[in-house]
Amino acid sequence: MVCVSADVQGWGVSEWRWRAFKIVQSVVERLPRAWAYALAVVAARFAWRFSPLARPRLEYNLEVACPELTPKELRKLSWLNFRNHAKAYADLMLLPRMKVEVMRPLLHVNEKDLDYLEEARALGKGVMVVSCHMGSYEVVSAIWSATLAPVSLFAEELEPRALFEWYRDTRARLGISVLPLHLAGLRKVTQALQEQEMVVTAIDRDITGTGHVMPFFGRPAPIPLGPAALSLRLGTPLLPVCVYRLPDDTYQAEATPPVMAKSTGDSKADEVRVTQELLSRIEAFIRRHPEQWHVPHRIWEGSP
Questions:
Q1: Do 64 and 300 meet the contact criterion of CB atoms below 8 Å apart?
Q2: What's the predicted TM-score (pTM) here?
């Protein structure tokens, strides 16, 4: 009998995951966008039917966010959610051959929402764009980076390392910096904001396990306080934004008025208060577009 250590087994799984991704991605990037979407929808149907945890966890989260849904409505919503997310993944796989000029017609922004962005930028302290796991931020970030200011994205470090590096390098080609969620990444965020850049992050999931428990859709959940803490320290405005897919497969970016963090002298209470205000804006985004909010992970106690 040959015994294989957990580390070696994990490396093997990760290596095969990377190879499988690259095979699929190399095919998808050569397809017309409509064909890439068709393939993505087929993959979404398979994942939606057979995923042992992703679908149950997603439906649990959607039920918390939209308690008025009937079981039939919840089932339909979760399918649309998987479908939209698969298309966003196809967009990501198409990025190596995409140019910003081609991407610009894919993004729609109302004048009011542009005004909120310009209001935040006018302060000269950078902009912390705060959002949730919805839509495709590669499209909007690439366009903003080419037309407004350099953009950085917070991103979870994926395994294997080669997969994370592909994400990082693909985004970098479009002018998007990827910042890992650790201390070195936080130092780069501070530097980027001091240089009046835009940093995009999401607060609807506690990836690092260091979040503060507070009400999210009326139920206690760990939520990261980092954006509020940075805003209080640097004076950077916080701009709640969501990006969602339209029926014609273009994207709409939607914003709210900037949140200005004001200190009362109690730093922890200030961080919680500002984050709660951000969460209320994020909740409104999700309630308006639940079919676009894709978080197949545990947020609340009781989730599968």
A1: yes
A2: 0.91
pLDDT digits (tens, 9 = 90+) for 57-97: 999 999 999 999 999 999 999 999 999 999 999 998 998 88
Q: Write down the domain spans for the chain.
A: 1-97, 100-290
Query: Any idea what DSSP says for residue 157?
Result: P
The answer to whether the CB of 274 falls within 8 A of the CB of 259 is: yes
Q: Which residues of 14-36 are buried (b: 16+ CB within 10 A; e: fewer)?
A: beeebeebeeebeebbebebeeb
Contact 244, 287 (CB under 8 A): no
Separation CA 75–CA 63 (nearest Å): 10
Whether 191 contacts 120, CB under 8 Å: no
Task: Give 10's strand partners.
Answer: none
Q: Give the helix/strand (H/E) hosting 131.
A: strand 127-131
Q: How far apart are CA 189 and CA 192, in angstroms?
A: 5
- Residue 195 corresponds to which tokens in the numbers above? 């240089």
**Separation between Cα atoms, residue 16 and residue 39, nearest integer Å:** 21
- CA–CA gap between residue 22 and residue 36 (Å, rounded): 15
Packing angle of the helix pair 267-288, 54-65 (nearest 10 deg): 100
Quick: pLDDT tens for 219-242.
Answer: 999 999 999 999 999 999 999 999
As given in the structure block, the two tokens for residue 73 are: 């409505």
